[in-house]
Structure prediction request, 432 residues.
Amino acid sequence: MEKRTLQTARSKAMFKKARTLIPGGVNSPVRAGKAVGMDPLFIGKAEGCNLWDVDGNKYIDFVCSWGPMILGHSHPDVVSALAERIDKGTSYGAPTELEVQLAEAITKLVPSVEMVRMVNSGTEAVMSAVRLARGATGRDKIVKFDGCYHGHGDSLLVSAGSGVATLGIPGCPGIPEGLACSTISLPFNDLKAVAAAFKSHGREIAAVIVEPIPGNMGVVIPEEGFLEGLREITLRHDSLLIFDEVITGFRVSPGGAQLLFGILPDLTCLGKIIGGGLPVGAYGGRRDLMEQVAPEGPIYQAGTLSGNPLAMTAGIATLKALEKAGTYRELDQKGEILFEGILKAASSAGVNIVVNRVGSMGTLFFTGKAVKDFASAKACDTDKFRQFYTRMLQQGIYLAPSAFECWFLSTAHDEESLRYAIECARNSFASL
Ligand SMILES: *Cc1c(COP(=O)(O)O)cnc(C)c1O
Prediction:
């Protein structure tokens, strides 16, 4: 194994200072590295599939900013579009042609989205979609699934995945009891539990919200019939189906998971990729629902920086680059090379792992049993993951510092970087 002791003095010093100024030293808890017992690295620059920390160490990046950077970092088309735009001002608080262009691209590509409203984050997209669902149905209850993360809005921070799962936070102080109890959280892939919830509360359920391919408890694959079942039961009870495609939108196909599986939700939440690395979210769906949003309708939702011209520019350039023929096939092939290689390396080292992957998003779980919901994800060996994480980092492989996250690939990950990552995994497994 290539022995490389990382020199990270500058990151360490900056983190020490950051902790005195910012809670936990980070602006989003998942970055802190608590679960793997490491301090976070401070990043100085990024290009293609590589990151450099402020001490000058170079890494192959499998976090991709937690999903948005599907073209890799500093993609020339995105950079030049932004450079050209920035001279024209950065925010006007008035409509621009760019918003219409991005809305047109999204409604053309995402099958169920007839109208769309831009916001500034995935969290905001979900909060707004939930408000719309409640307003449109006149009902309060929301059904979600254990281990799915839908941003940090009050209603959905119950049994949530991602950082909440990583830090093992059970409930979150500050969320009113009344709100928490209008959320029903059920096991993913369990249609019986959904049927039971509708049997007792059918008339009170405004919507079922789901990550159609969960990525926030690690990647979990919906079983045959599960999403179809959600569509059917929501239709039967006049509830709405919300797909949270903040990760899967433009990640698993040009039209998200809904195109991949051929299921039309009523509302869709987007984020991450549609901002090309700038802060953006969006929610959209059926025209008759979206027309109930202010100022067309009474359901209020607004944003000073929503539809920001630079964010729209990055999003438009990203979606345009993704239109290149063969992009999603290429991303899938990269995912196959990487995860098949890792699986083989684990198997020859006698390490039990399970890989769940859809295209360019995948997770390896340190367990011998299938992972199909949050309970089975949580049964994986997080201590093994922590050791694996540390060894990978020492060899220059930058992974999300949690056993419950995805690895993301970009078009910028070339075969050489994937082969190198497989070699590093082989070395890491050997010493587990
Ligand atoms: C990241 C994420 C969100 C929240 O998006 P932010 O931009 O972090 O607020 C919501 N839903 C899913 C599925 C996500 O992965």
Observations:
- The pocket of pyridoxal-5'-phosphate is lined by residues 121-123, 126, 149-151, 211, 215-216, 244, 246-247, 271, 281 (CB under 6 Å).
- The chain has two domains: 9-62+325-430, 76-322.
- The mean pLDDT is 96.
- The domain at 9-62+325-430 is CATH 3.90.1150.10 (Aspartate Aminotransferase, domain 1).
